[in-house]
Design brief:
There is one protein chain. This protein is mainly β. The chain contains four helices and 31 strands. The strands form seven sheets. Strands 12, 14, 15, 16, 17, 18, 19, 21, 22 and 23 form a ten-stranded mixed sheet that branches. The longest helix is centred in the N-terminal third of the chain and has 11 residues, at 140-150. The two termini are 66 Å apart.
Length: 484
């Protein structure tokens, strides 16, 4: 309400008067000396609470409070939002708005957009486009899901996921889509040959046959026949990432998640210059792993690739685009009847040493074009590491190189016990200071212990496995954030 200068008596209104006694429409009408000080506060009901002090040389000080309503000005505009089929906002989507006039703009971080430039009464067509980073969110997990759909094990449900699985835009889902997606994963190509990275569908569109989204052409643009004078605010779209069925496409504003890891195993071997060695790679978790992908790195100055023997993984699982850089990209998903046990390698590398050393020094997984991931039967993603069954052993006690190495946050130390029993894992600094000790009972065969990098100093450290009077040691490197 509005009150007099004492703040006690309600008043019907407050006026600033011109010299002739008539209400002034604005301050420009006032010719006598004056000073007006106003403070404003926007309230939740879109009104202003204004307090004022009016001073002049001839009249007493006037004060008052007034609540003044604010009416938004309506102008022609086109606005809306774009979200993924998983409900996440999509920033940086390009929108082409054609009509008179035309424009191009990008969605904001919230996935929303607003254009104040159209003319009322004119027709406009809004078309979104995002056709880069075709491999974003496209992983071997998607191959597992599509393969299960094709085999009739677990059908893909929902029109948006079916559109995502149709990588070659054939209006059906087949092995050709698996091939198209796998080629993206291992870097044989950077784009889908017959498709864009995303497809956008009118958010208000209802599929007449959800199990067959291609029963009729679905709208990938929205047309406005005659724009209202006060504009439109609901020109919304659903964005579908082609090839991504589990929603792990990462926007430019997100960071990838950290996950627990599965392991691949390979025998370590000491190599003299000129020696040739076969290096089989196995799934440590056997039947628990339904698929995996990674970039296998090797040092071309230390070893050369002489050949490869295919195992559970066939020729189409490999990408050779980066071979000259010492990188092999890989994507494999288990087929029905395949058993990824320790007796059946995924594949075997045939290598030749160019200098003396050990395989574990020259061969590793990641970083590279294809991120390292493993997947269970539900296509849930896990991390992936390569562990070596090494030459560092004593009477059957085998200590493997820690993975990853160097590391910052966490590393896994694998070891093989010749029989079940107690063992102690120790970590020492270069000057012999004890940094870590863990004693426990371990089962026969492969075991792992995880070390927290935050609890260890930076630099070269030594770790030792002690059991039944025997001990074996290796080196590891801890790097803190910001280290080289």
């Amino acid at each position: 309400g509005l009150f007099d200068s004492l703040g006690t008596t309600p008043a019907r209104g407050m006026y600033i008067l011109a010299p002739d006694g008539t209400p002034a429409d604005n301050m420009d009408m006032l010719s006598f000396p004056r000073q007006l000080v106003l403070d404003a506060l926007i309230l939740s009901n879109e009104s202003f609470l204004i307090g004022g002090f009016l001073f002049d040389d001839e009249t007493p000080e006037q004060t008052g409070l007034a609540r003044i309503g604010m009416a938004p000005v309506s102008i022609p505009h086109i606005a809306g939002s774009i979200n993924t089929n998983f409900g996440s906002p999509m920033p940086y989507v390009e929108l082409s708005i054609t009509g008179s006039p035309t424009t191009n703009l990008l969605t904001a971080a919230s996935g929303e957009y607003y254009w104040a430039g159209p003319q009322a009464g004119y027709g406009y067509t809004v078309t979104p486009l995002m056709d880069y980073f075709h491999g974003n969110g496209v992983t071997t997990a998607d191959l597992i899901l599509i393969n299960r759909h094709i085999l009739g094990i677990e059908p893909i449900e929902g029109p948006y996921l079916l559109i995502a699985a149709d990588a070659n835009r054939s209006q059906s889902i087949s092995n050709l889509d698996l091939v198209a997606i796998q080629r993206i994963i291992i870097g044989l190509t950077d784009v889908f040959a017959n498709n864009t990275s995303y497809r956008f569908i009118d958010a208000d569109y209802v599929f007449p046959q959800p199990a067959n989204p291609w029963a009729e052409l679905f709208p990938e643009s929205i047309s406005l026949t005659a724009l209202p004078a006060d504009g439109v605010d609901d020109v919304d779209f659903i964005g579908v990432k082609i090839g991504d069925l589990n929603g792990d496409a990462v926007s430019p504003l997100q960071a990838p998640a950290q996950r627990p890891a599965f392991s691949l195993l390979a025998p370590d071997a000491a190599m003299e210059t000129g020696a040739k060695v076969a290096m089989p790679i196995y799934c440590a978790e056997g039947g628990e792993m339904a698929g995996c992908q990674f970039t296998l790195n090797f040092d071309p100055a230390a070893v050369s690739l002489e050949g490869i023997d295919y195992g559970l993984a066939g020729e189409t699982c490999f990408g050779w685009r980066f071979l000259g850089e010492g990188r092999i990209t890989f994507s494999w998903y288990r087929q029905p009847g395949q058993e990824a046990d320790s007796g059946s390698p995924l594949f075997t590398l045939r290598l030749k040493a160019r200098k003396s050393g050990a395989l574990s020094q020259w061969v590793s997984i990641g970083p590279g074009f294809t991120p390292a991931e493993a997947y269970d039967e539900l296509a849930s993603p896990y991390g992936l590491r390569l562990a070596f069954e090494g030459t560092t052993q004593a009477e059957g006690l085998m200590l493997l190189q820690n993975v990853p190495n160097p590391f910052t946050t966490e590393t896994a130390i694998g070891f093989v016990m010749p029989e079940a029993g107690e063992a102690t894992l120790l970590a020492h600094s270069a000057d012999g200071r004890l940094l870590y000790s863990h004693k426990a009972y371990f089962e026969q065969g492969y075991n792992e212990v995880f070390l927290n990098g935050a609890e260890l100093p930076e630099g070269m450290l030594y770790y030792t496995l002690v059991s039944d009077g025997q001990s074996v040691s290796r080196k590891m490197v801890v790097r803190k954030y910001g280290g080289e």
